[in-house]
Amino acid sequence: MPRSGTDRNLRLQGCGGHQGLKKYLAAIGPRTQGSAEPQGEPEEAHSASSGQAERVELPVGSNTTIVGLKNAVLKGGSLQVRNATNVIIRNLDVRDAYDCFPVWQPNTGGLGDWKTAYDTIWLSGASHVWVDHVTLSDKGHPDAEEPTCFARNYLRHDGLLDITNGSDLVTVSWSRFADHDKAMLIGSSDTASGDRGRLRVTLHHNQFESVVQRAPRVRFGQVHLYNNRYVVPSDDYRYSIGVSTESALYAENNAFHTPGHIEVADLVKSWNGSAFHQTGTLFNGYPVDLVAVYNAYNSGSERDLTEDVGWTPTLHTKIDSAETADREVARGAGAGRLP
Ligand code: CA
Questions:
Q1: Residue 214 is among the residues annotated as catalytic for this protein
Q2: Which of 6, 95, 192, 194 counts the most CB atoms within 10 A of its CB?
Q3: Domain that holds residue 304
Q4: How confident is the model at residue 43 (pLDDT cuts 50, 70, 90)?
């Protein structure tokens, strides 16, 4: 390995194959990232990642329209709409926003977990944004093939499309979210009260395919979720729709396809949130009531979900039946499928 400076060394270690991975993990291990303040090598490792940021982060400014040409692929980059307005992104395949330097967070989720830096698309403080006919995935670099480190899957990717920090008036349509762990986070923290009254998002005619969780997970936002198609993976599935702090999800005519061992009650998860309105859901072709099933199944262990979300969506075009949407989305969602 070349010795041309700490930054370069650590960067190579972080993305330097098996030996590099071992050194990086030794540098940021639980002993240094746990109770003690990180110092020395780990800090250098993290500062080395700033060089990575220059390569990965692709800022998108206000009043910008990006439309992919035929077969356009953006690989290894993170499109970031930060504090910008009036942005359209269409017809792009964005994949593998890979992080060479995941950070171990010992206090996450009880067992600790890996925190990675990049979403394939990140909307932060963004307003009036339309994302349409994009395909977002880890294609070529699935987290499932990463090793287990500190008893957790060594994740390399964060969200496929995260919408945070007071973003507002966002529509995501006719897009494909595929082969990924955390698909879409709307609202990044229970304490981000600046998100209150914002994070108004419409998600329609999207396909969530082999996604482990967050399709989406919502805090604070008023989210209209209609005519989406879910193809739930067999392995490592956690949930699809996450109901969290002060969220107000209004779901209509969505279709789920699941393997045999996934139950209706598995599709929704709530933490510190309970407002979830749903109608017209299809589960493997059969109509189901997600709220009634969730409440019956989790009776006694979780707070009941309530159908009163305090608002009714009005800003939308025609809403299809779940059956029609299921067929149309399978055929028409994603990059390369503009009508
Ligand atoms: Ca993120």
A1: yes
A2: 95
A3: 55-332
A4: very low
